[in-house]
Amino acid sequence: MGDPSPKMRASEIILKTLGVKRVAAWCAVSEQTPYQWLVRGTEEHPIPLKYVPAIVRGARAEGMSLSFSDLWPAASDLSTPEAEENQELAS
Questions:
Q1: Terminal CA-to-CA distance of the chain, rounded, Å?
Q2: Nearest to 14 by CA among 76, 74, 64
Q3: What is the pLDDT of residues 16-74, one digit of tens each?
Q4: Residue 30: count of CB within 10 angstroms of its CB
C-alpha cells in the first residue's frame, strides 16, 4: 500500500495528531467544523485556505512540526505572492 492521499493525510493530521478540539479552538470554530472541512474538501484543498495559517501557528506553538503544504497540498505548486504571504503567516 502506498502513501496516503493528500486528503487522507490532512484528515489524519487533524483527527489523530492535532485533535479536533485544538484545531477548532485555534480557528475559533465549532468542533463540528473540522469534520465538515474533511468531508467537503478536495485532494488539493482538504482544509479551507483561510484556516490553514491558524492551524500551522497553533501546532508550531505547541512544538509540533507542521508545514503549510501538509494541510493544503496545492500550496506546494504555487509561487504566487499570495501563496508566499500565506506561508509566511503560517511561520
A1: 33
A2: 64
A3: 999 999 999 999 999 999 999 999 999 888 999 999 999 999 999 999 999 888 888 87
A4: 11
Cβ atoms of 48 and 29 closer than 8 Å: no
pTM over 0.70? The answer is: yes
Residue 5 C-beta-side C-alpha neighbours within 13 Å: 10
Report d(CA 42, CA 19) in Å as an integer: 20
Instruction: Give 17-20 contacts, CB < 8 A, sequence gap 24+.
Output: 17/64, 18/55, 18/58, 18/59, 18/64, 18/66
Buried b (16+ CB within 10 A) or exposed e, 31-61: eebbeebbeebeeebbbbeebbbbbbebbee
- What secondary structure letter does DSSP report for 36? H
Cell 489523530 sits at which residue?
Answer: 16
Report CA dihedral (4, 12, 68, 57) to the nearest 10 degrees: -170
C-alpha cell recorded at residue 56: 500551522
